[in-house]
Amino acid sequence: MPEYLAPGVYVEETQASNKPIEGVSTSTTGLVGVTERGPLNVPQLVTSFGEFQRLFGGMLPADEFTGPGARVHSYLPHAVEGFFLNGGKRAWVTRVLPEQAERARRDLFHLDLANAAIGGSVLLRPALQDTGTAINLPRLYVLDPGNFGVGDWVRVGDGSRADYRQVQALGAAPAHTALTLPLYFSHAAGAPTRDIAVTVNATLSPFTLRDDTRAGATEVVLSGTAALITTLLPLTHQLLQVDGAEYVFAAAVVGLSTTEARVLLETPLRLPHARGAQVDGLDIPAGANVNLDVAASAGGLLLFGPGFSTAGNLVVVGVGSAQEEVQRVGTLAQLPLDVPAYAPYPAGTIGQLVTLDDDARTVVDLPTNVVVPLDTVAGMSAGMTFTFGANNQVVAAVNQALGLVRLAAPLPGPALAAGDAVQVGAIAASVVAYPTERVVPLDSVNGVETGMTFDNAGDTALVATVLPDLRAVVLATALAAAPAAGTAVTVGGNANTAQSLLRPDVIPLDDVDGLAPGMSITIGADTGTISAVNTTVGAVALQAPLPAAPAAGATASFALRHTTQAAGAGAATLALDNRLGLDAGDVLRIGASPDEEYVTIARMLGERGVSPDAGVVQLAHPLSGGHASGVEVARQDVVVDTTRQPATLVLSPADGSDQLLVGDGTTYGAVLPEVVRFTTADGIAYFHRLDGAAANASPLEIELDDRLDFSHAAGAVVAERNRLFAVQALDAGGWGDRLMVAAADEASSLAANANVLAANPPPGPGMFSSLQLATLTGIEPGTILELLAPDGAPVAGAPLLKARAVDRASRLVLLDPPGLQAAHMNAVNNALMAGLNARVRSREWSLTVLLRQRPDPAVPTRNDNLLDQESFRQLSMDPRHSRYFERVIGATFTPGAPADDAGNPLRRWDRRSEGASQYIRVLDLEPVIANRTAIRLGPEALLDVLPSGLVRPARLPLSGGSDAVPLMGDPMYAGTDNNEPDLRTGLQALKNPQNISLVAIPGQTTAALQQALIDQCEAMRYRFAVLDGPPPDNDTLADVQDLRSRYDSRYAAVYHPWLTIPDPFPQSLANLRQVPIPPSGHMLGIYARVDNERGVHKAPANEVVRGISGLTRYFSKGEQDILNPYPANINVVRDFRPNNRGLRVWGARCITSESEFKYLNVRRLLIFLEDSIDRGMQWVVFEPNAEELWARVRRSITNFLTTVWRNGALEGTTPEQGFFVKCDRTTMTRDDIDNGRLIVVIGVAPVKPAEYVIIRIGLWTADAEQ
Predict the structure, then answer these.
(1) Whether residue 570 sits in one domain with residue 554
(2) What pLDDT, in 10s, does the model give residues 921-980?
(3) What stretches pass through the bilayer (predicted)?
(4) ω into residue 367 within 30 of 0, thus cis?
(5) Host H or E run for residue 357
(6) Which of 1105, 899, 1068 is nearest to 982 (CA)?
(7) What is the three-class DSSP state of 80?
(8) What is the C-alpha separation between 927 and 1229, in angstroms, rounded?
(9) Whether residue 397 is found in the same domain as residue 532
(10) Which domain holds residue 1016?
(11) 855 burial class (0-12, 13-18, 19+ CB within 10 angstroms)?
């Protein structure tokens, strides 16, 4: 009783005499099944199919989720979609999986800054997918593995296709053979090879090349003695050695003359060869063969299996096969370069030793061994053979006017002299020197014209041609005798003097290519300017004569050019003060030793001007270094050293590499300086000066702990790395294999460019150094700081710093040991002395999580499309930092455990760890907690280069996710009960939400599972189970009757047949098949729709089934006559499309033998009433059990049932006809009252469905009586 002790007003609340009863929900559904992802065994409330997809993923392909016995486990998403399509509002979904299901994962790695012994190398041979272990051969073949050790983690490859593996073992150096030139053919593993010495066949040697031969030539013309040609003619598949450098087989030989033959080659030449290069026929000695262990690809320079290492020997590959070829054995070596590689030259690029000298020519006097004046050239033509003694050469051109022949190449042997007898073809002739009877050089040709009379002491002839560039005349008829040099003659009556060709103003040179009027030429101490160039004779005329005629053999040089503008590294053009004589293809030296650089001219830019033709040239490739204005530039003479074997690239070098791996580095760089020219397939030449002697390579095999996920080309990076943290899919299942993560260095720092006001060393022992900054924004304990110069560039040699504590009052950042070092102090103090400030910026990283769509067999190009992505910015690896990655993203956890792997309690709502990511969880793999505060920048930021040239962070896939489909079965769905609700699984987990009214396990029709559903509904009393009929193809009338016969319950209904929809994962869009799905999900939606639109008392039948295209089996009315009535009570889905009424559910019965509960709406109405009254009467407990309470109870229940009656759920035209409520002494005895029992008796008359609509009709007559 209330107390009234002091006078005053007391306001009291009194309870209403009637407490209303609120009707419970009848359409909240509980579903159990397999989903793509989502929390396990924790019911989740979803209110739309979109929300379901967000939590649990999308549809599941039936072929991937079919277990033993062809049992399909992919139906739950279809059921949920059907539920909401047909009017469902709320569903509790419980995801189940076998305990053996795995979560996808991957480790992310980093380059340990504290480890100075990091190993790194490259692959020497391709590593194919699913290889690399002792079982999955071959192992990885690595160049100079350096510091690799057993147990080390290595990254193989780069970008999104990088593989991280642990080194299981280091093998001995395997047998390999390096080649000097690339293979022509591919050879399978097991192909026979043979090591042979160079064995010259004396009957087939020596030949010479008649012509210059380009690389790629498939035929050559050989010159030799008649005996050699005769021996060669009938041979096929004859091995030839060309210039001691390459080896080809002759496919056929065609005789051109007794001393020449055209040889058709089985494979094209790899190298260009000059006229006169020696060709020898070789024998292939018999010997033992060694088989290849690994297939060799065309273009490769390494053979694996045969360990032939005798440099200079030959190896026959594919012995006896149609692809038999011969290559020279080399020594695998690395060439050190003074200038890094300009580009990633392709593997197989051939390098040749060259001599580079500033452009210079030699003064000659005719005749030479190239330009030969003869006493007669009548009948001679290009292509004839010029013979002098035992030596011969091909005639390149004949000039009738000058009476000379030009040979295609210098004639071997001694120098020619006037009077030597030679033969051109079959024509005999004698070598002469100018002046001759027809050609007379003069001291001047000024005023000399054609038709004038040339007179040498009465020996006369008319002038036929005047040659101003040679200061000479050609006579129409021959003189009786050639005038001697220095003889006085007259031409047109004017006095002249006959001269030799070489004189002060006309200088014959060994080569006039690239010379042009206006160029300055220096011979000895004398310098002149070229006025004309005669290419026929090979001489230059000078604007003014030199003081004296130079001697034959003197060297002629040319003035250096200079740059007129600075050219920075990467520049592709060069501005010169003089372009005279330059042309595309010329090689230039830029700068002087030791900083010179060699480049090739690609083309001349702009119009060619008058001397000195200043302008710009475009280079064949960008410059490696920078060159100032005024630097000297000289055209180079390039001479290939054919005595050295070619140095062919085994691997394409990485950008900026200063080491090139070649198939044969023998003697390269032994005597410096040496320059190697590398010519790519597109003709671009790159010149590199060697920085030292070639170093022989020491390759090694390494064995991995697991096979590779991707294939990797030769040259792929193999780099030692350390595990940093683990990434794990949030939930178990194969869906996680579609996740990718992309790490990147954060471009936008939390602390950006804060000015450093002071750098303070530790004030005493055991104390910490500090920085005073202008602002501390974005800086907190654990922040990594990088010191920058005032211009924003990182300070060289200054290690990163780690913030230990922050004093915001004094703007001081205390630093973790070792703290500030000399480089930091110097940079800060130097900037302050210059009136500037050094800066700091923080270093963070970001992680992006990407979810790809499920593979689409109909449109495979969409497989990499993204469904979703999430990004986490400004992350830290330090647990002290507020953006510690584990804290932000979420720590990994074990399902069922009370806490995550970081020790934090799991979330209550989904039993997963706290974290912002919807897809992943992470775990710091540093085992020593104290080490987690060390400087760790985050995972290495790999990059992908897209076809467009754009760069993006590499997307690293997770792997190892598994749904354990073969282990799916009834125990998984049924689950296990537990007194602790959080530990319940499967169907038992649906006991936790108390507001569930309907339950189903879509598509699972085993007796045990369906009985488990019924048992739960009967035990919990206020639930109703919707069961599926048997799946196709076992879905006949007899099959569904057999399924029905297993059960007898007022709390369940069976629906049949199954429904069909278009295949959500079609193999072809042109042939879209229909796939079966269970009806339970759609029926549950119809229950909800009818409940919401009409009420639970309306039978959920005669309703259109939405979202389907058909049925797996079409039952007729006659068949339903068997299935519908007792004892079957099976609800059939019928096809009424012929009547334009669609596909409808055409039954509303429970599978019970109790006739009063045969109708669904009756059973569910009673569940509704019982549950509502149960909840609404909870207030009655412990109330005084007397008439006042009984009356209140009667009023509450009567009011509630009256509302139900008014809604049409009960029969009768008055409430009294629809129900009664009794609660008085007639319902309770004294014993009941004394023992605390309050008994209410309620009777209801629920409406029944008009299942059979019977219309009786008869004939009517006008006078008939009723």
Answers:
(1) no
(2) 999 999 998 899 999 999 999 999 999 989 999 999 999 999 999 999 999 999 999 999
(3) none
(4) yes
(5) strand 350-358
(6) 899
(7) helix
(8) 73
(9) yes
(10) 29-99+967-1164
(11) middle
Number of helices and strands in the chain (H, E): 14, 79
CA–centroid distance for 80 within its chain: 38
Domain count, the chain: 6
- CA distances to 194, 248, 292, 482 from 320, rounded to whole Å, are 11, 15, 15, 66
The 10s digit of each residue's pLDDT in 794-805 is 999 999 999 999
CA angle 780, 784, 789 (to 5 degrees): 110
* 577: alpha, beta or left? (left if phi > 0; alpha if psi -120 to 50): alpha
Give the three-class secondary structure for 1144: strand
Instruction: Show the tokens assigned to 1245.
Output: 């008359």
Distance CA 77, CA 1064 (A): 11
Q: How far is CA 558 from the centre of its chain?
A: 52
Separation of alpha carbons 576 and 595, rounded Å: 18
Cis peptide before 346 (omega within 30 of 0): no
Q: Is residue 231 part of a domain?
A: no
- For residues 338 and 689, the answer to whether their CB atoms sit within 8 Å is yes
Q: Are 690 and 127 in contact (CB under 8 A)?
A: no
Q: What pLDDT sits at residue 1202? A: 97
Give the pLDDT confidence of 70-121 residue by residue, as tens digits: 999 999 999 999 999 999 999 999 999 999 999 999 999 997 766 655 768 8
Task: Give, as one character, the DSSP assignment of residue 438.
Answer: S
Judge whether 507 lies within some domain: yes
**Strand pairing category for 1103-1104 and 1074-1077:** unpaired
Helix 76-85 / helix 1080-1093 crossing angle, nearest 10 deg: 20
pLDDT in the model for residue 171? 80
Residue 16 pLDDT > 70:
no
For residue 700, what pLDDT is reported? Answer: 87
CA neighbor of 956 nearest in space, from 375, 164, 287, 187:
164
What's the pLDDT score for residue 170?
A: 87
Are 809 and 877 contained in the same domain? no
The Cα–Cα gap between 549 and 443 comes to 12
Q: Do 782 and 737 fall into the same domain?
A: no
pLDDT of residue 1007: 97
Write the CB contacts of 307 (distance below 8 Å, at least 6 apart in sequence). 175, 176, 177
Domain shared by 735 and 773, yes or no: no
* 422 touches 367 (CB < 8 A): no
Q: Where a domain ends, among 795, 815, 843?
A: 843
Concatenated DSSP letters of 43-93: -EEESSHHHHHHHH-S---TTTTEEGGGEE---HHHHHHHHHHTT---EEE
* Average predicted confidence (pLDDT) for the chain: 93
| pLDDT surpasses 70 at 583 | yes
For range 535-558, the mean pLDDT: 93
Q: Say if residue 794 is in the same domain as residue 829.
A: yes
Exposed (0-12), middle (13-18) or buried (19+): which is 693, by Cβ within 10 Å?
middle
Q: What is the dihedral of CA 981, 985, 987, 989, to 10 degrees?
A: 20
Residues 879/932, Cβ–Cβ less than 8 Å: yes
End-to-end CA distance of the chain: 72
Report the pLDDT value the prediction gives residue 173, as an integer from 0 to 100. Answer: 67
Least confident span in 241-250, 384-393, 1143-1152, 1184-1193: 384-393
| Residue 538 pLDDT | 93
Main-chain phi, psi angles of 293, to 5 degrees: -80, -35
- The tens digit of pLDDT for each residue in 18-35 reads 789 999 999 999 999 999
Q: Are 702 and 170 in contact (CB under 8 A)?
A: yes
Percent of the chain with pLDDT over 90: 87
Please write the tens of the pLDDT for every residue from 519-531: 999 999 999 999 9
Beta pairing, strands 1052-1056 & 1131-1135: parallel
**What are the residues whose beta carbons fall under 8 Å from the beta carbon of 840, sequence distance 6 or more?**
751, 753, 754, 756, 771, 773, 785, 786, 787, 788, 801
Residue 382's alpha-carbon distances to 406, 431, 433, in angstroms, are 9, 18, 21
